[in-house]
Amino acid sequence: MANEKQYTLEFQAAQHLTQDYYEITLKAPANFTWEPGQYTHFSLPDHEIEGKKQRALSFASLPDEKHILLGTRTRQTPSSFKATFLGLAPGAPVVSDGPQGEFLLPEADVPLVFFAGGVGITPIRALIRALTLSNRQQPYTLIYSSDDFYFFDDDFSTWAQQQAQFTYVKTQTVDQTHEQLQSLVQTASAQTQYYLSSSPKIVQSMKEFLGTLAVDPEQIHLDQLYGY
């Protein structure tokens, strides 16, 4: 359920990374915070938007990073919302209805396996960053699948070098991803938790694959991203 309270954020910049991939940074007011793994609905006041007037985007950063970091792509033809969002001037207001979502880290220190497809990496970037700053001792692995570009690749590569518990694996095909997941499941402890983030079709496909490996559905956590 959406929060009734609204927050006015400040647009800072949109960086064109490559092809149709963009990073967006926003400045949040002091009373605005969120948990890693959450998302919010954004709207753009004072702008005429055709079609959907707001979009849900996941936080890729932590509150301690002093800014809100988002990742998105536009495909060949940007929606009216995205074209307007990416073209905002620095300082322009952006409205949020507050953080939402339950795609959160477990309280227990247990092994974790993350799968991200494409822009589904955005909430997982925040989760991984939180883990690198924590005192958790159990291993955690990220399998990141993309056919052309890997968001936040430098961050993950650096953290994997710094953190002995963190393993970063990049794949390009479904077969490669299945091979990596199967290998992890075969050696995983009974307490391992699995986090899947991508489009609904890909998330459901990976969930079904984990089911064929006898992973308990209660240990699978889903974040299905719409409208990226």
Q: What would your notes on this structure say?
A:
It holds the Pfam family NAD_binding_1. This is Oxidoreductase FAD/NAD(P)-binding subunit. GO terms for molecular function: oxidoreductase activity. The protein is an alpha/beta fold. The protein has two domains: 90 residues, Elongation Factor Tu (Ef-tu), domain 3 (Beta Barrel), CATH 2.40.30; 113 residues, Nucleotide-binding domain of ferredoxin-NADP reductase (FNR) module (Rossmann fold). The protein is 25% helix and 30% strand. It has a six-stranded antiparallel β-sheet. The protein has a five-stranded parallel β-sheet with strand order 9-8-7-10-11, sandwiched between helices. The longest helix has 14 residues. The radius of gyration is 18 Å and the shape is globular. The two termini are 20 Å apart.
SSE topology sketch:
Blueprint: E1 7-18, E2 21-27, E3 39-43, E4 54-58, E5 68-73, H1 80-86, E6 93-96, E7 112-117, H2 121-132, E8 140-145, H3 153-162, E9 166-171, H4 174-187, E10 193-198, H5 200-212, E11 220-224
Parallel strand pairs: 7-8, 7-10, 8-9, 10-11
Antiparallel strand pairs: 1-2, 1-6, 2-5, 3-4, 3-6
Pfam family, one: NAD_binding_1
GO molecular function: oxidoreductase activity
InterPro entries: FAD-bd_FR_type (IPR017927), FNR_nucleotide-bd (IPR039261), MRET (IPR050415), OxRdtase_FAD/NAD-bd (IPR001433), Riboflavin_synthase-like_b-brl (IPR017938)
